[in-house]
């Protein structure tokens, strides 16, 4: 059992207002690998901020891939990641077309 726990990591996607980040933690909460990238801020009107939902998705995928690559360099295998959590912009909404899966507009 203890041997199995040695290879237990948890990932976290942190989707913020200005950036996307993926962090990989070991069982003690130590950061083992991470990657972060900013995304474009769109200002369609004073006091408004929008984001491109496709850019957010691309950034999430890129951050996960980059952090996993860094983890692999440290000897951590992708199959050792046992769970992934997600934090997001609580005040942001994206509407998707249920048939096509395409966003109907920018993230508002």
Helix/strand layout:
Layout: H1 2-6, E1 9-15, E2 19-25, E3 31-38, H2 53-73, E4 81-87
Parallel strand pairs: 1-4
Antiparallel strand pairs: 1-2, 2-3
Provide a descriptive summary of the structure in words.
- The structure is a single chain.
- The protein is α+β, with helices and mostly antiparallel strands.
- It has helices spanning 2-6, 53-73; strands spanning 9-15, 19-25, 31-38, 81-87.
- The chain has a four-stranded mixed sheet.
- The longest helix has 21 residues, at 53-73.
- The protein is elongated.
Catalogue the unreliable spans.
none
| Overall average pLDDT | 92
Structural class: alpha+beta
What's the shape?
A: elongated
The largest beta-sheet arranges its strands as: 3-2-1-4
Q: How large is the share of residues in beta strands?
A: 25-35%
Number of helices: 2
Largest sheet geometry: 4 strands, mixed
How big is the Rg?
A: 16 Å
Please supply descriptive tags for the structure shown above.
single chain, 108 residues, alpha+beta, 4-stranded mixed sheet, 4 strands, 27% strand, elongated
Can I get a quick summary?
This protein has helices spanning 2-6, 53-73; strands spanning 9-15, 19-25, 31-38, 81-87. The protein is of the alpha+beta class and 108 residues long. β1 (9-15) and β2 form a beta hairpin.
């Amino acid at each position: 059992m203890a041997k199995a726990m040695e290879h237990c990591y948890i990932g976290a996607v942190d989707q913020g207002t200005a950036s996307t980040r993926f962090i990989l933690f070991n069982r003690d909460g130590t950061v083992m690998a991470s990657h972060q990238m900013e995304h474009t801020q769109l200002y369609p009107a004073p006091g408004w901020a929008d984001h491109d939902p496709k850019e957010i998705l691309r950034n999430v995928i890129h951050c996960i891939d980059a952090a996993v690559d860094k983890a692999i360099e440290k000897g951590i295998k992708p199959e050792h990641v046992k769970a992934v959590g997600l934090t997001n912009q609580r005040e942001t909404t994206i509407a998707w077309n249920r048939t096509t899966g395409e966003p109907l507009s920018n993230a508002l």
